[in-house]
Amino acid sequence: MRRHIGKTTSWFSHRQLAEIDIIDGGDTMAHIAEKTVADVMKERSSVRKYKKGIKIPPETLNRIIELAGTAPSSWNLQHWKFIVVEDEENKKSLYPVANNQQQVLDCSALIVVLGDKEADKNAEEVYASAVKAGYMSDDAKNKLVDQIHVAYRTVEHIGVHEAIRNASLAAMQLMLAAKAHGIDSCPMGGFQPDALCRQLHVPERYIPVMLITLGYAETPAHRTERFPLSKIVVREHF
After folding, report:
1. Which neighbouring-strand residues pair with 207?
2. Roughly what angle, to the nearest 10 degrees, separates helices 158-180 and 58-68?
3. Residue 24 has what pLDDT?
4. How many Å separate Cα 135 from the centre of its chain?
5. What's the start-to-end Cα distance of the chain, in Å?
6. Are 224 and 45 in contact (CB under 8 A)?
7. pTM of the complete model beyond 0.90
8. Percentage helix, strand, coil, to 5, in the chain?
9. Which one of 35, 82, 115, 161 is separated from 200 by 20 to 30 angstroms, measured CA to CA?
């Protein structure tokens, strides 16, 4: 017999409630409890030792990357591209590029996070969809797209700065989504970008922002201390 008894908190929103069902089978009851966003943030830590040889189910990995793609971005240009490396031989070839870090070999998947230096080229597609959905007029779309192209032509280093800034937002969201699915991660800045681009045939349009290892922890990451609010917050001005 199935009977509804209440609600629990979904990890996607600290306040939003998600319904659950309780299955009453005599003396046996089972329930599903989901975590809050705050729980996931606190539980996420950088894991460097993984259980080797375990694959992440494709549907889970796809879902994690799909959630990463919901990150905010300047002008909604979505300045990211993810190269997913799961093949053992390919990971071995990237091992020296990542300065011989063992986690590259042991992880279930290595995600290469790229930033799009020419993301203004996405503007037409992004805002054509907005026009089709009725969110804006065609005239407003054309004016906004022109403004974006002008900014990319005239603001110094805007392509690189926006690529790194926005791809980093998606990278953080990817790690949180992974943790919500029971998968650990570690962001990596220690790699050789030029060699990486050559190895993976990365077009000139993209810049490597970071590597992220994904997998199942062999040993828990040691806890690290965080500065108190008094150390990180400035009210109004310095």
Report:
1. 115
2. 140
3. 35
4. 27
5. 62
6. yes
7. no
8. 40, 20, 35
9. 161
Average pLDDT over residues 53-67: 97
Match 């209440």 to its residue by tokens.
6
The stretches of 69-109 forming alpha helices (DSSP H) are 88-94, 103-106
Handedness of CA 72, 73, 74, 77 (dihedral sign): negative
- Alpha helical stretches, state H, the chain: 37-43, 58-68, 88-94, 103-106, 123-132, 138-154, 158-180, 193-200, 229-232
What residue has token string 């080797």? 52
Match 């026009």 to its residue by tokens.
131
Task: HSE, CB side, 13 Å, CA atoms: give it for residue 228.
Answer: 1
Task: Provide the CA 19 distance to its chain's centre, in angstroms.
Answer: 27
Lookup result for tokens 């280093």: 157
Closest listed residue to residue 159, CA positions, set 214, 117, 102, 208: 117
